[in-house]
Amino acid sequence: MSVRSEVILMRILVTGGAGFIGSSLCETLIQQGHKVVALDSLFCGNEANLATIIGHENFTLFTGDVRDVDDLDACVDLLGGLDLVYHLAAINGTRWFHEAAHSVIDVNINGTLRTLETAMAHDAKYVFASSPEAFGEPISQPLSDGDPMIFTDPKQHQRHSYGGSKYLGEVACQHAAREGLELTIVRPFNAYGPRLNGDDYGQVVSMLFHQMRESKILKIHGDGSQTRSFTWIDDIVDGFVKAGSLDLPTGEVFNIGSQEEVSIHQLAQKVANFADDVEYSFTEGYHGDVSRRLPDVTNSANLLGWQAKTTLDDGLAMMWDSFNS
Which phi and psi angles does 281 have, rounded to 5°? Predict the structure, then answer.
């Protein structure tokens, strides 16, 4: 197994490149010497996330739609060819799953199909950002590749607009792999870091920090007993980079997540430790929210040589420092 990025500088398209994970991935790829175009509609992404590399001679931010073939072609033209696609563009955030299910399905599925077609047309390698939500409501933990992916009756809720789109994205990817595309799938588990969206449409770690700063009242869905495995952004990016740079069997799937499992209530308590006089408010949770999510990272350890290096306590401390810098 050889690391391609050690010997070959690549022309790389990162869709969703102004987003939370995408922007950090772009920074790392530029540091490694690659030529990178970030395609982003800026609906969820933010140009400010790319401040450290805007203006770099090897980087371009292209504002466009991942579903638009002309926009994808324009990105390839800017690169002067295409060696690797990291497809991260998607509508994420639990409130969007329920409030804008049609848009979630449209962007996530059609964006994946168009980028797969672009990669196949240029014989480029492809890395798909899937999600543990692709398992739906699993019957066992930890989540392992090959486990059943189970989705409940859509009359009950719309949460699986996202998970279903990621499941179908994996179906499309495996079809492309069978057609000969060099491809890997990465499932990041609850990535967090300073750029993570913390408003009502964001993710829980950043939401808790924002709530503590604004009101010192931390909102916990349900009774807070549901567990997650939160993974520091640098560890997540390391997994993506390895998935794109190693020579791997096509169609391999990698869970990229911490083995440190924590309940949402415990997470809120850890965040509360950074301030005084913090209160908790228990609210109704989202429909379809799974009670537990823990990754099996055996394949990632064996084939990528990957494991999470940052403890939750250390990552939360870095988050707190970023809020006060």
Answer: -130, 120
Neighbours of 23 (CB within 10 A): 28
pLDDT for 112 beyond 50: yes
Q: In this structure, which amino acid lies at residue 258?
A: S
pTM of the shown model = 0.95
One-letter amino acid of 233: I
Per residue in 281-312, pLDDT (tens digit) is: 998 877 778 889 999 999 999 999 999 999 99
Q: What CA–CA distance (Å, rounded) separates 55 from 195?
A: 20
Q: How far apart are the first and last CA of the chain?
A: 41
Give the number of other CB atoms < 10 A from CB of residue 48: 10
**Is residue 156 classed as helix, strand or coil in its secondary structure?**
coil
> What are the two backbone dihedrals, phi and then psi, of residue 43, each rounded to the nearest 5 degrees?
-70, -50
- What are the contacts of 131-135 at 24+ separation with CB within 8 A? 131/162, 131/163, 131/166, 131/187, 131/188, 132/187, 132/189, 132/255, 132/257, 132/293, 132/295, 133/160, 133/162, 133/163, 133/166, 134/163, 134/166, 134/167, 134/169, 134/170, 134/187, 135/163
pLDDT tens-place string over residues 133-162: 999 999 999 999 999 999 989 988 888 999
Range with the lowest mean pLDDT among 154-158, 187-191, 226-230?
A: 154-158
What pLDDT is attached to residue 70? 98
